[in-house]
Amino acid sequence: MKHAVLINNSYLENLSVRYLGAYLKAWGVKVTTIHCEGKQDAVFNPLPEDSLKALSAYCRNCDLVGISLLTTHQLTRAIQINDHLKHTTAAKIIWGGVPVICDPRFYLKYADYICLGEGETVVEQLLEGIEPADIPGLGYRDGGNRIQLNSIPTLLDLGKLPMPHLETENGYILRDGKLIPLKAELGRLIRYSILSVRGCPYNCSYCLNSKLKSIFSGKGPYIRFIETARVIEELVWAKENLPRLREIIFDDDDFFLRTEKELKKLLKTYAEKVDLPIYFIQSNIKHITASKVQLIIESGIPLKHFHIGLQSASSRTNTTVFNRAFNKDTFIRTIKMLASKGISVTLHVISDNPYESIPDKYESLLFYHDVVRELKKLPTIDIPVEIYDHKLMFYPGAKLYAQARKDGVISGDYIDDVLLKRNTLRTYADDVDNDAFVLKLFNIAVRKGRLSWIAYGIIKILRIRPIFNVVSRYNFLKPLSLILRKV
After folding, report:
1. Same domain, 93 and 29
2. pTM score
3. Cα–Cα 20 to 30 A to 36, which of 122, 264, 447, 484?
């Protein structure tokens, strides 16, 4: 029996290794999944020597190692694992993941084999011993060290794939130089992620999705809905096999892409057979309607968070820089509707944007003021809205990365200097600036209590344009940001 080891550097229920592992098991391969666990941001640090030794000892006699990259941030550790196993095992090593698909030539500087698309059939044929040149969807370096990119096969029919359960029998967590059986750790899992829709219909310039859409053009439907029966079957399995499971995450790019009829069917079956709170869903503002939200409320399923991508409250930034539609009135109306129904909203914002001007930032401030003003009219939950502040990062393969390189906004060393050193959340020391101060003010102002009125008052003062222009130009609010970080 062939043996494939899948190495996961991201969150425990990584959907990529789950789908690939389930497919290979159904084909008759022994599959082991190893999760490289660590503290927050540990992915930026190399694995210790004893962890590498534990990996090579386990993989010594396996036939194939798959390294999954969820994001470019994981490159350093992927290279380290790849190079160590290449010298200590005879296994073929193949990389996969969205960043690899979007920039294959870059990743073939480090890997001998990569997946150019969905990896299930690619890995299967590589294990069968088929010549690399004859495997659709494989990228590799030939005997002359030349890069070869084969044709990409059609997208898979998700309804015909095996159920992508979390691998519990042959799953391990790599921790402190030891491989700890995942089965003994299942009590730590209180949330389980699932996809009910695969694919994102939007073309945001900072995101790799637009590149994926062009790569898979003509290869079948890019947006693929997973049948309700299959979604529920997997969640019932999770409920039965994870003893402390408390919440479900629907990790779809846009949960509300489905029609009201489809949504009603999913929620009805979920309430009957799963009946667990949903930790979060996410959707584009254009698909969030009062009637769809009402279906969730009527189902009786508790929804803890609703994630919405705002990215910027500047019309110019959204349309010209981010390639996103933006309507201020629609956003405020939808946020009020969700808050009035007691649903907590998480807005995702991208700041520290070199393409954004002071007038753009002022327009955003007016938006934050208007949201707070409207929410203060409502009797609602303590934290009706919270903003997650992300640093604008440029990812190889995305349209904005190419534009930033062309404009000289980022250098050729950007990957090493930035992407391999930090994540997007603006919690680092050098993230303290006016943008961070304004967003922190908003997060305080939308809450209840005296402090919220003080924060709202400061926002109202900043609405005086000459004041805002001066403090923005000279970054006068930076010292105050240091104080608010502790609030």
Report:
1. yes
2. 0.93
3. 122
Distance of CA 417 to the CA centre of its chain: 21
> Does some domain include residue 180?
no
Tens of each residue's pLDDT in the chain, 487 residues: 999 999 998 878 789 999 999 999 999 999 999 998 665 567 788 899 999 999 999 999 999 999 999 999 999 999 999 999 999 999 999 999 999 999 999 999 999 999 999 999 999 999 999 999 999 999 999 988 899 999 999 999 999 999 999 988 899 999 888 999 999 888 888 999 999 999 999 999 999 998 999 999 999 999 999 999 999 999 999 999 999 999 999 999 999 999 999 999 999 999 999 999 999 999 999 999 999 999 999 999 999 999 999 999 999 999 999 999 999 999 999 999 999 999 999 999 999 999 999 999 999 999 999 999 999 999 888 899 999 999 999 999 999 999 999 999 999 999 999 999 999 998 887 888 889 889 999 999 999 888 899 999 999 999 999 999 988 887 766 665 555 555 5
Q: Which residues form the domain of 132?
A: 3-173
Same domain, residue pair 219 and 264: yes
Residues 118, 9: one domain?
yes
Q: In CATH, what number is assigned to the domain containing residue 128?
A: 3.40.50.280
Task: Assess if residue 183 is contained within a domain.
Answer: no
What phi-psi label fits residue 245: left (phi over 0), alpha (psi between -120 and 50 degrees) or beta?
A: beta
- Among 70, 119, 73, 62, CA closest to 94: 119
- Give the number of domains in the chain: 2
Three-state SS for the chain is: CCEEEEEECCCCCCHHHHHHHHHHHHCCCEEEEEEECCCCCHHHCCCCHHHHHHHHHHHCCCCEEEEECCCHHHHHHHHHHHHHHHHHCCCEEEEECHHHHHCHHHHCCCCCEEECCCCHHHHHHHHHCCCHHHCCCEEEECCCCCEEECCCCCCCCHHHCCCCCCCCCCEEEEECCEEEEHHHHHHHCCEEEECCEECCCCCCCCCCHHHHHHHCCCCCCCCEECCHHHHHHHHHHHHHHCCCCCEEEECCCCHHHCCHHHHHHHHHHHHHHCCCCEEEEECCHHHCCHHHHHHHHHHCCCEEEEEEEEECCCHHHHHHHHCCCCCHHHHHHHHHHHHHCCCCEEEEEEECCCCCCHHHHHHHHHHHHHHHHHHCCCCCCCCCEEEEEEECCCCCCCHHHHHHHHHCCCCCCHHHHHHCCCCCECCCHHHCCHHHHHHHHHHHHCCCCHHHHHHHHHHHHHCCHHHHHHHHHCCCCHHHHHHHCCC
Pair of tokens at residue 33: 């999944």
